[in-house]
């Protein structure tokens, strides 16, 4: 047993050495429940690169989906008296932790987390701008004229604002008519139900050219619509489809050169870098006025999809 | 000719010596009895022979030359075979698999099990025992306890040819067997003996030892007391050697005449397992229930415990109540039960003596009707432990540390927590040593004199006749007869099982 | 020596962990603030583990506690979002817990399904139920009354101890209350003693007049109630309810009870031993975070320590 205890101590100590950096460096804790998700890893890539240049001691903490544990870890980080905390989780859910940080006067910066009065600022993509990109792309491609199908999801605020912008853009063209505004069932990810809904719409509008475009608030419905159109043998009618997020499946579809023509890619790495900048400004004593710092998103089309 | 000679066997557990310079000599081709009270060191000696307990000191000579005994492999190499008290069979496997299990299964192409040869091999083993009524394809769980024992013995016969069996060690093989099954077993033992093998036979049953063994070695407190030829010794001498005191192998005298007051009447009672019960019980009476193995004796007790639902007929107690509807109800009405399988149905082995003894009485031993009182429980248990002459080191001791006889006394302590109105005893002295048996007999007698009615089963017929006022004979799960024990002989009683 | 290790190995290990963190983090670990933090951080796991102990005393398991915690949180949030008062939401959540637990108990005790299988089934049912009533969404913001989420953020002021800015969190107080209730219930009432008897030998307990079926069912109901309580605590702490938020609790709770079982002579679950198990898990999380140990290394270490504790107690048992 003594031997076991000794080996345990050795393990702990080596773990400590792995993680502990220079003592004098500024300590920043990054806390997220979503480290396993691809987007989060890109944020971190950008953040870590910038932090490395600045010589910070960064501690990345993953709570494996457990939101309450994020609060616990914020408390621990405050107790450890870190210089700044970065979170990547809905701030209203971890308000208990943010209040503790505020009392200890430790700044907390959101990395695509959502706006909250308890955050110094939140670095994110501009949802309004992303929707405007794809909506204007469609209006442009169909010459400001024709029937458009929209796939939206109003219960989720970040997606809901995308729909509002698309409504405004299409509403500004007198010859564009939105013939359906569909909210797909998202239990299975959204592709299957969107496809079923699109098949029904295609059946209701059988004439060639009766549907000019499909605008989707995110990629999955766009992919579902694409499948429906191809299966109905109407791929050659020139129906334009757009999505948002530019996930790998969408990029593949865009690269294939079919109806799915465009999507918008958030600059995850850029958000990470910008978050590091915001942290640096805060640490330098600057008071950041903006509640949100937007990092521009890029329109992805067949022309630039390979370069990404 | 001496085949095996074991000397200077010492095994200590902490300060207590389970074996203290014990010895044992077995001749080739003899049936040698090993006797002693529970805790005398018999089980430890067997474990040493099997190589599963390493002694502090020991020397083993086989055929005059010294051989090592350091593990189960050494025991197997010397041709030792073990048949344990607790049947370690796998109930849901077939008879054949249980017999062949310890060996490599015969295979086809070195891969698939060759089932035909498995069954042939098992069948051959059973044949050597002259057993032809057991189908090797049956699930072992469906056999009677006696047949399971035969399967176990057959398994030891299928040993590899490299190390032929020379010594069979049987640890209380008859504890769970009926008289008929015992006879079968002794015929098998005789056959093994003829083949030149020796048998070390551990039993608490004096009759079996006197009738079937050649010599007996007696252990007491981990020491060898004596070894003698059966023909040259007597029951009384053996008991005296075992106990260190003179106890007569008989039953305590009745201390009073049973009251005339009626306790309950049973009319044409039928349950799922037993039928045709019709008798009445007087307060303080001891009723025995006898019959061939599994003829419904236990089920009679279960009916009174509320664990066997009546289908028709009626039981009326003197206070106008009928049979209890569940064991919990029975205990509330002071119907106490000592189950047949002490380890499976009786004790929580890893829990303390107190916890085991007070279980049905927890509600009454508490304070304010909500909380338990450990103090009251200890006082209660301590008093009863003294009454049943329980040997223990502390009341918080877990029960698995106690010997079989003392475990049984813990089960009795539970039943006596409140003076029972009706005491149900299912094989109350099975696997219990002579001294503890006598204590149990005395207790039951005392309770009877104080007015507790008792129903007990036993496969030990002299015990039933010695203890009971009347005996209910069961046959094929039906009441066959009810007889007074005055002047009844075991032979006459046995005859009633078959007639 | 070996038997000492077997009996007290886990406790010694726990002390060693504390001393280790104390030496590594002399200024921030063994402070009143951090102790209060830890107590609050582990409070939800503690409530689940304490009530899990009740069924484990009988040798049973309840795998559904995590999804029950989620379901209870969501149920309360739905009631809140329909503008019912706080007590109505809390009552609804607790009722869901009790009914779900009774259902588990019914399956195990009356239908006779193995607890592992039965509660694996209800785990999925409760989880599906939580998704169903919440529509798969996180319920947060104005739907959660501030009085409810405020509970997890406040406590009793410790001014009288001279620890002015600190307070003893209500979550901690609630966990301690559950601990005391379970301790009295299991070890100082006939009810709990009978549960231990069922764990010791089901058949023997039944034949000794213990009402095994109803007791077994009631124990599952209590575990369900505990899971629902933890679900409410969780929802209050994160001021929101989501259909998966409790799912991490189940494995940690079972691990805590197992850690505790290594401390008793006969390997029986005892609620105070479970507390040590919970503390070990909580202290490791807190201390390793403070030492900036990588999250994944942390998980490996925590798992290794659980295995080590159980191994040391069973090695001791084999030799003795």
TrEMBL record, chain A:
Cited Pfam families: Peripla_BP_4
Cellular component, GO, one term: cell envelope
Keywords for this protein: Signal
GO terms of molecular function: carbohydrate binding
Principal location: other
Protein family membership: Belongs to the bacterial solute-binding protein 2 family.
Protein name stated in the entry: Substrate-binding domain-containing protein
Automatic annotation (TrEMBL), chain B:
UniProt keyword annotations, A-Z: ATP-binding, Membrane, Nucleotide-binding, Repeat, Sugar transport, Transport
Domain ABC transporter, chain residue ranges per copy: 4-246, 257-498
Chain segments annotated as transmembrane: none
Residue stretches in coiled coil: none
GO molecular function list: ATP binding; ATP hydrolysis activity
UniProt cross-references to Gene3D superfamilies, sorted A to Z: P-loop containing nucleotide triphosphate hydrolases (3.40.50.300)
Top-level lineage group: Bacteria
Family statement drawn from the similarity comment of this UniProt entry: Belongs to the ABC transporter superfamily.
Protein name (database record): Sugar ABC transporter ATP-binding protein
UniProtKB/TrEMBL annotation, chain C:
UniProt-recorded Gene Ontology molecular function terms: transmembrane transporter activity
InterPro entries assigned to the protein according to its UniProt record, in alphabetical order: ABC_transp_permease
UniProt keyword terms in alphabetical order: Cell inner membrane, Cell membrane, Membrane, Transmembrane, Transmembrane helix, Transport
Subcellular location per the Swiss-Prot or TrEMBL entry: Cell membrane
Main location: membrane
CDD domains per record: TM_PBP1_transp_AraH_like
Top-level taxonomic group: Bacteria
Annotated membrane topology: Multi-pass membrane protein
Transmembrane intervals: 7-25, 37-56, 63-80, 86-106, 113-133, 168-186, 214-235, 247-264, 271-288, 300-316
Cellular-component GO terms for this entry: plasma membrane
Protein name: ABC transporter permease
Species whose genome carries this gene: Flavimaribacter sediminis
Lineage: Bacteria, Pseudomonadati, Pseudomonadota, Alphaproteobacteria, Hyphomicrobiales
């Amino acid at each position: 047993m003594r031997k076991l205890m000794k080996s345990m101590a050795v393990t702990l100590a080596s773990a400590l050495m792995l993680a502990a950096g220079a003592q004098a460096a500024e300590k920043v804790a990054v806390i997220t429940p979503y480290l396993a998700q691809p987007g989060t890893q890109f944020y971190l890539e950008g953040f870590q690169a910038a932090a490395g240049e600045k010589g910070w001691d960064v501690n990345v903490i993953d709570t494996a989906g457990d939101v309450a544990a994020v609060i616990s870890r914020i408390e621990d980080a405050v107790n450890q008296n870190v210089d700044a905390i970065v979170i990547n989780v809905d701030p209203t859910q971890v308000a208990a932790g943010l209040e503790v940080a505020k009392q200890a006067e430790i700044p907390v910066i959101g990395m695509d987390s959502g706006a909250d009065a308890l955050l110094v600022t939140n670095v994110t993509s501009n949802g309004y701008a992303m929707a405007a990109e794809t909506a204007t792309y469609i209006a442009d491609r169909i010459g400001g004229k024709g029937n458009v199908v929209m796939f939206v999801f109003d219960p989720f605020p970040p997606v809901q604002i995308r729909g509002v912008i698309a409504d405004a853009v299409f509403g500004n063209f007198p010859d564009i008519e939105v013939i359906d505004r569909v909210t797909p069932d998202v239990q299975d990810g959204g592709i299957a139900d969107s496809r079923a809904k699109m098949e029904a719409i295609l059946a209701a509008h059988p004439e060639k050219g009766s549907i000019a475009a499909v605008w989707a608030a995110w990629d999955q419905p766009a992919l579902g619509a694409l499948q429906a159109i191809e299966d109905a043998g109407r791929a050659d009618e020139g129906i334009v489809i757009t999505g948002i997020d530019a996930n790998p499946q969408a990029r593949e579809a865009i690269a294939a050169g079919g109806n799915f023509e465009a999507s918008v890619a958030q600059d995850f790495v850029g958000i990470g870098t910008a978050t590091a900048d915001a942290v640096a400004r805060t640490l330098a004593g600057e008071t950041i006025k903006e509640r949100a710092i937007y990092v521009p998103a890029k329109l992805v089309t067949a022309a630039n999809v390979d370069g990404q | 000719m001496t085949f095996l000679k074991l000397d200077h066997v010492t095994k200590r557990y902490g300060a207590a010596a389970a074996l203290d310079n014990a010895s044992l000599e077995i001749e080739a081709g003899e049936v040698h009895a090993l006797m002693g009270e529970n805790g005398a060191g018999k089980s430890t000696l067997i474990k040493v022979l099997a190589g599963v307990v390493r002694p502090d000191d020991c020397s083993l000579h086989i055929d005059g030359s010294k051989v090592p005994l350091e593990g189960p492999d050494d025991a197997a190499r010397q041709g030792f075979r073990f048949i344990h008290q607790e049947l370690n069979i796998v109930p849901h496997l077939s008879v054949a698999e249980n017999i062949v299990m310890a060996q490599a299964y015969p295979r086809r192409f070195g891969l698939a099990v060759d089932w035909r040869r498995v069954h042939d091999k098992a069948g051959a083993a059973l044949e050597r025992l002259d057993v032809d009524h057991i189908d090797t394809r049956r699930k072992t769980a469906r056999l009677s306890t006696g047949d399971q024992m035969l399967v176990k013995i057959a398994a030891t016969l299928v040993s590899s040819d490299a190390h032929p069996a020379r010594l069979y060690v049987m640890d209380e093989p008859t504890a769970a067997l009926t008289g008929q099954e015992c006879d079968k077993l002794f015929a098998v033992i005789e056959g093994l003996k003829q083949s030149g093998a020796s048998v070390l036979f551990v039993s608490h049953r004096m009759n079996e030892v006197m009738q079937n063994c050649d010599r007996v070695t007696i252990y007491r407190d981990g020491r060898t007391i004596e070894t003698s030829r059966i023909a040259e010794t007597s029951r009384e001498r053996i008991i005296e050697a075992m106990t260190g005191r003179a106890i007569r192998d008989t039953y305590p005298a009745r201390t009073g005449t049973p009251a005339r007051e009626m306790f309950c009447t049973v009319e044409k009672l039928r349950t799922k397992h037993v039928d045709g019960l019709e008798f009445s019980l007087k307060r303080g009476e001891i009723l025995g229930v006898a019959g061939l193995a599994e003829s419904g004796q236990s089920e009679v007790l279960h009916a009174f415990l509320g664990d066997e639902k009546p289908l028709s007929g009626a039981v009326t107690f003197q206070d106008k109540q009928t049979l209890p509807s569940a064991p919990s109800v029975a205990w509330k009405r002071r119907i106490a039960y000592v189950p047949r399988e002490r380890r499976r149905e009786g004790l929580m082995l890893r829990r303390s003596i107190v916890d085991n003894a007070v279980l049905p009485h927890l509600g009454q031993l508490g304070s304010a009707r909500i909380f338990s009182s450990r103090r009251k429980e200890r006082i209660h248990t301590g008093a009863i432990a003294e009454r049943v002459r329980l040997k223990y080191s502390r009341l918080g001791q877990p029960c698995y540390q106690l010997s079989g006889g003392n475990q049984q006394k813990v089960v009795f302590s539970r039943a006596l927590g409140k003076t029972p109105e009706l005491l149900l005893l299912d094989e109350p002295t099975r696997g219990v040593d002579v001294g503890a048996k006598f204590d149990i007999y005395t207790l039951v007698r005392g309770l009877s004199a104080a007015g507790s009615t008792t129903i007990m089963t036993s496969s030990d017929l002299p015990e039933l006749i010695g203890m009971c006022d009347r005996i209910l004979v069961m046959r094929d799960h039906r009441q066959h007869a009810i007889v007074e024990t005055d002047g009844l002989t075991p032979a006459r009683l046995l005859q009633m099982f078959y007639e | 020596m070996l038997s000492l290790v077997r009996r007290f190995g886990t406790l010694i290990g726990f002390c060693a962990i504390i001393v280790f963190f104390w030496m590594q983090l002399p200024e921030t670990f063994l402070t009143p603030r951090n102790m209060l933090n830890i107590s609050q951080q582990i409070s939800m796991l503690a409530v689940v583990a304490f009530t899990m102990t009740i069924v484990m005393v009988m040798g049973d398991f309840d795998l559904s506690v995590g999804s029950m915690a989620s379901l209870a949180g969501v149920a309360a949030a739905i009631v809140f979002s329909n503008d019912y008062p706080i007590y109505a939401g809390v009552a609804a959540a607790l009722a869901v817990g009790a009914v779900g637990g009774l259902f588990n108990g019914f399956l195990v005790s009356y239908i006779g399904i193995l607890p592992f299988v039965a509660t694996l089934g209800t785990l999925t049912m409760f989880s599906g139920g939580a998704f169903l009533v919440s529509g798969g969404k996180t319920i947060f913001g104005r739907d959660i009354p501030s009085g409810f989420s405020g509970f997890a953020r406040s406590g009793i002021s410790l001014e009288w101890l001279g620890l002015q800015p600190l307070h003893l969190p209500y979550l901690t107080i609630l966990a301690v209350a559950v601990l005391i209730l379970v301790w009295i219930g299991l070890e100082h009432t006939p009810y709990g003693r009978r549960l231990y008897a069922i764990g010791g030998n089901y058949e023997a307990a039944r034949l000794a007049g213990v009402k095994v079926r109803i007791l077994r069912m009631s124990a599952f109901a209590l575990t369900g109630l505990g899971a629902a309580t933890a679900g409410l605590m969780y929802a209050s702490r994160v001021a929101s309810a989501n259909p998966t938020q409790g799912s991490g609790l189940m494995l940690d709770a079972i691990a805590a009870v197992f850690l505790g079982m290594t401390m008793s002579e006969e390997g029986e679950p005892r609620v105070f031993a479970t507390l040590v198990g919970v503390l070990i898990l909580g202290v490791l999380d807190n201390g390793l975070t403070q030492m900036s140990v990588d999250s994944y290394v942390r998980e490996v270490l925590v798992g290794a320590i659980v295995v080590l504790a159980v191994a040391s107690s069973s090695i001791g048992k084999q030799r003795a």
